[in-house]
Amino acid sequence: xxxxxxxxxxxxxxxxxxxxxxFAQNKSDEIQVSLxxxxxxxxxxxxxxxxxxxxxDETTFFMPKIIPGTYSEDDYGRYVENFKAFNTKGVxxxxxxxxxxxxxxxxxKSLAKITYLVNDTFDSESGTEFGKGDIFSPAGTNIAxxxxxxxxxxxxxxxxxxxxxxxxxxxxTKPVALYGATAMIDGDKSDSVDVFTAxxxxxxxxNPIMYNKPNFxxxxxxxxxIILSVYSPKGIFKAEDLKPAMExxxxxxxxxxxxxxxxxxxxxxxxxxxxxxxxxxxxxALEHNTSTVVVFPEAMPAEQLEESMIDVVSHEFFHIxxxxxxxxxxxxxxxxxxxxxxxxxxxxxxxxxxxxxxxQVNQGLITEDDFYKRMAGKVTNSKQYDETMPFTKMSADVxxxxxxxxxxxxxxxxxxIGMCLDIQLRENSDGERGILDLMQKLSKxxxxxxxxxxxxxxxxxxxxxxxxxKTFLDTYVAGSTPxxxxxxxxKMGVFKTKIQIPGNVFLKGQAPYITVNPTTKEIIVxxxxxxxxxxxxxxxxxxxxxxxxxxxxxxxxxxxDMIIGSMSWQENDPITIKIKREEAEMELxxxxxxxxxxxxxxxxxxxxxxxxxxxxxxG
Length: 619
Ligand SMILES: [Zn+2]
Description:
The chain is an alpha+beta fold. Helices cover about 25% and strands about 25% of the residues. The protein contains 16 helices and 32 strands. The strands form seven sheets. An eight-stranded mixed beta sheet has the order 6-5-9-3-2-13-16-15. A six-stranded mixed beta sheet has the order 1-21-22-20-19-18, covered by helices on one side. Strands 26, 27, 28, 29, 30 and 31 form a six-stranded antiparallel beta sheet that branches. The longest helix has 19 residues, at about 240-255. It is globular and about 80 Å long. Mean pLDDT is about 90; it is low at about 5-20.
């Protein structure tokens, strides 16, 4: 998955039951699931599951405790209500709820079907900011009658004990006006019914479906079809508008990857949320084998949405390499109820995040300096975490409290481990081979259907590379020695320096220049602090109340619009701010001056390492 850090600084009808109706028992060896998206009960969707005939006296039905890619225990059973089981005569069977996620059903031999209602997760996210206990929105669900349904199948459909390897048939009754975008191939289809099949539970829940009024497009990258579907509540964004950037990026990714990937259809499902309502607030994306669900605020400026989409979708798409084609047994035989974690998050998330940056410089989408800036940012961010925490230990124990909080370091230090390993491999092979070559070999060795044992991975990597790589892995990945980034950069003729990066007009780092009066909701320039050049050049003073900017009124309710809107301002754009200063209203006119922040960075020197560096970044 990839979390986005946009907001760091601020922040029916119940199924009609008629006891006289007889239910025939399912004679096939298939789990038949139906979802009713037409008759919505209080934001809840009715689910009916018809299992094959049971030979046991009782059975247990489970909703997932955890799903692949999130690395967090989310208890999807929390969102299930009115769980009922019926026999063939339509008589209710006795059911005992065992815990958050499981229900034991007695008299299983006569079980004909179960029914329950599913609540959505977007509406129940707490407060104005993505918080603890909330399900990361790209893994969550939305149920908005006649308008939008985010069907992350793992949150709607569960499995019976020992039957999760049976095929599933999913029948969705849907409003005629809504289109369901997914990477699954649909079978029987009509204007009001979609039917999908999956070979087993894990495959079903690997395939999200997003329903909304048609706003989708598709394009080909070699022989792979990509579908991009967008839900934009206020109709601001069209799939067609995002298509050129996505197409350019994915062409470049496919070119960078070469033979690794053989996916035929890939779906990008983008849900844009309205933060003024109870709606999704966990921005970012979650990967699946052949699709990704992305959540961003609709209030983002177009340019910034495009940039963020490039970052997160390229990350998710690179998961095709790992963990999707190169993964351990913990992932292959994923246990949705009692999860066991692999030691190798440095590879699944770290190398993926590194690739998402490397391919951009490799394919000319960003400059070398942009690439160093991004890596320098990761070095700075990684220092917020314990640099001596062994990455393999953190990964295996990521569900425990003391390691859970370090999870986000997989996108920082994890990516840097990938970079340093890449540099080491390039140095060892005179620039010939790097980490992409290693991942190609690993995916040939293992692949989608053949997992590795967690403990054998390092030895396998060494056998495909050279013995000193064992020292690297033991010291910096499994060991507690901090990575000496400067030493690795120096091998490529890249050295530490101070660089200037554009800052935000309302924030210095994570410290805001503005505050809010909770009673009046007014936005106030913080008094008693040194203001930045943007503010002083316009004549803003501490204590000024910001009433409007360029004729748009702002207060606490839409402060987020103001902040993210400001991120797309360019140097010297004309700007007019209406303020209130000591009861007097006044208008400040001028141009935007973007403040520059001086931070640690890296730059390349023109020296003998140039050929090696070219091989690393452009090879
Ligand atoms: Zn990821």
